């Protein structure tokens, strides 16, 4: 193993931060903590919807030199503007940059570029989840940095377990992985550092069993019928309010 691609993500001193970015909980956590530690072969970023995990990952990607639309490091897909460009930056390691940035929302359009670069492959003929697995299995290797935004999207629970095994294998061989996920399965990646961002703008380093996703799934499986009935009743009561 030859070190890491990135060690941390830090605010740029005296940078002009757009007002709405300053209100994003994950960015407030970055400002408050002074850095997001990435000194691990696998780092998982988790937390509720809307806390800014994907925005943060995109900021890390563009700071590393990836196209903000996603794709391979050398991809020429049209750029998207990123609100964190210039206001935060990665502390780089000593490895030459290469890898892949998987964005859930632009994966379909970037897949066209992948098809052109890989003869005989048509990701558009696969489901979203299967196309993600194909890229991981066929293109990820020991010498890359892999940034993944909710790669579990479109995958069954069993296929998420397959993805867990694939990511663990490539990380064990020397790759570095930073992923945003809600999946308790992917949060169980052996050796991963788990950082959970809160709606209050804090960042917590947690064990798997302490994460919101794991606790919610555990509680649901412990009383599936009771929780399902409760949620239906709560929603019905809200809809009936005058």
Task: Kindly describe this structure.
This protein is α/β, with parallel strands linked by helices. Helix 4 (128-139) packs parallel to helix 5 and helix 7 (212-222) crosses helix 8. Helices cover 38% and strands 18% of the residues. The chain has two domains: 6-207, Rossmann fold, CATH 3.40.50; 211-241. The mean pLDDT is 88. It has a seven-stranded mixed β-sheet, sandwiched between helices. A three-stranded antiparallel β-sheet has the order 2-1-5. The chain is globular.
Oligomeric grouping of the chains: single chain
- Helices and strands: which structural class? alpha/beta
Total beta strand runs: 10
Strand order of the largest sheet: 4-6-7-8-3-9-10
End-to-end gap:
62 Å
**Any idea what the radius of gyration is?**
19 Å
Query: What about the largest sheet?
Result: 7 strands, mixed
Per CATH, the architecture of the largest domain is 3-Layer(aba) Sandwich
Q: Look up the CATH topology of the largest domain.
A: Rossmann fold
Q: Low-confidence segments, ≥5 residues, pLDDT <50? A: none
Strand content: 15-25%
What count of structural domains? Answer: 2
The overall pLDDT average reads 88
- Report the order of strands and helices: EHEEHEEEHHEHEHEEHH
Overall outline: globular
Helix content: 25-40%
Count of alpha/pi helices = 8
CATH class of the largest domain: Alpha Beta
Subcellular location: Cell membrane
Keywords: Cell membrane, Ion transport, Iron, Iron transport, Membrane, Transport
InterPro entries: AAA+_ATPase, ATPase_AAA_core, P-loop_NTPase, Rad50/SbcC_AAA, Siderophore_ABC-ATPase
Membrane topology: Peripheral membrane protein
């Amino acid at each position: 193993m030859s070190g890491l691609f990135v060690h941390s993500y830090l605010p740029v001193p005296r940078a002009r931060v757009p007002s709405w970015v300053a209100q994003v909980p994950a960015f407030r956590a970055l400002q408050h903590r002074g850095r997001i530690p990435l000194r691990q072969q696998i780092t998982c970023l988790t937390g509720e919807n809307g806390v800014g995990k994907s925005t943060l990952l995109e900021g890390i990607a563009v700071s590393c030199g990836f196209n903000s639309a996603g794709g391979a490091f050398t991809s020429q897909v049209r750029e998207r503007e990123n609100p964190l460009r210039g206001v935060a930056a990665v502390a780089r390691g000593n490895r030459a940059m290469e890898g892949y940035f998987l964005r859930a929302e632009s994966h379909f359009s970037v897949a066209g570029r992948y098809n052109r670069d890989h003869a005989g492959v048509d990701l558009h003929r696969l489901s979203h989840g299967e196309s993600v697995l194909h890229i991981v299995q066929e293109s990820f290797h020991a010498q890359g940095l892999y940034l993944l935004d909710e790669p579990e999207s479109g995958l069954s629970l069993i296929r998420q377990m397959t993805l867990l095994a694939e990511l663990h294998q490539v990380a064990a061989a020397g790759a570095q992985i930073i992923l945003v996920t809600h999946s308790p399965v992917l949060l169980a990646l052996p050796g991963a550092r788990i950082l959970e961002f809160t709606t209050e703008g804090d960042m917590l380093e947690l064990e798997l069993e302490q994460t919101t996703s794991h606790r919610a799934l555990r509680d649901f499986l412990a009383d599936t019928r009771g929780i399902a009935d409760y949620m239906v009743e709560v929603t019905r009561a809200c809809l009936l309010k005058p």
